[in-house]
Amino acid sequence: MLKNKKCLVTGSNGFIGRHLVDRLHKEEAIVYSLNRNPSKVKAYQQYIVDIRDPLAVHKVIQEIKPEYIFHFAGSTLRESPEQTHLIDINAFGTKNVLDALSSIKYNLFIYPSTSSVYSNNYSVFSEDTQREPKTAYGTSKLLAEEYCLEHIASGKPIVIVRPFSIYGPGQEDGTMFIPTLMRVFKEGGTFKLQDGKQTRDYLYIDDFIQLLMDITASNIRGEILNCGTGKEITLGEIVSLLSVLCKDKKGKIVSIQFREGTDYLHQKADLRKAEALLGWKAIVSLEEGLQKTIELWRNNSF
Length: 302
Known about the structure:
The structure is a single chain. By secondary structure, this protein is of the alpha/beta class. The protein has a domain at 6-168 and 203-230 and 268-283: Rossmann fold (3-Layer(aba) Sandwich). The chain has helices at 15-26, 54-64, 83-101, 136-153, 177-187, 205-216, 235-245, 272-278, 286-298, and strands at residues 6-10, 30-35, 45-48, 68-71, 108-112, 124-125, 158-163, 165-167, 190-193, 199-200, 202-204, 223-227, 233-234, 252-255, 268-269. A seven-stranded parallel sheet has the order 3-2-1-4-5-7-12, sandwiched between helices. A two-stranded parallel sheet has the order 6-15. The longest helix is centred in the N-terminal third of the chain and has 19 residues, at 83-101. The chain starts with 5 loop residues before the first strand and ends with a helix. The mean pLDDT is 89.
């Protein structure tokens, strides 16, 4: 499907971007990368551009004229003092890319939003669940969604995906639960756990990348799709599972108070839409995914 197709990946330096580029090469696509800093990923052409610069973004788009755009450039900082920074990158940066694409014809633009756009008054989230983010990060992604919806309304071929908790090899974000816990087990220190009763829907990176490939192979456009496993697990259970899988572990777990009103108590994706439109389901179990993550992490294979 993507063989010899011009694919632009913004944010290819990131955790998901690196996995995506690897898969695109296997699909024999012509991969272009766009990042704010030099990237180590293999690409036909690499562009060093800040997506907050509309003129620079426009120049790149005009030069490449990509057929498929996977827009993963953005920031995951979640602290409220960073709200302006997050909106500049995640919302206005996305607007700049979309505006630059307005003057060319392309096959598909995929925007990865987040489950953090949903209200935390629910435990099972469908695509129609009320959007009421409680964090600056969620707000910035919601604004980016709105820009995507404006372009969808004008007939542009866009699909918005809302991933839940993605994990896997190469995830180094210091704010993410699994890589932070693994680092403490490896290097020592203290891991702060908010009672461990909160539940999350964890999706292995390979399953997420497969969803992206399924979307590109389909004719669906103008849709919003959840992606997760549809299964909940408590954070305490993940700690117990990693305690077994991470041999010779160090560090210690400290319980802290749950952040009422700012964090989700429960999260689970309603996947009926993705299954109906694409026949997509996650196939990697949590234990299998964690084992793969640990093995590749130990071997520095990704």
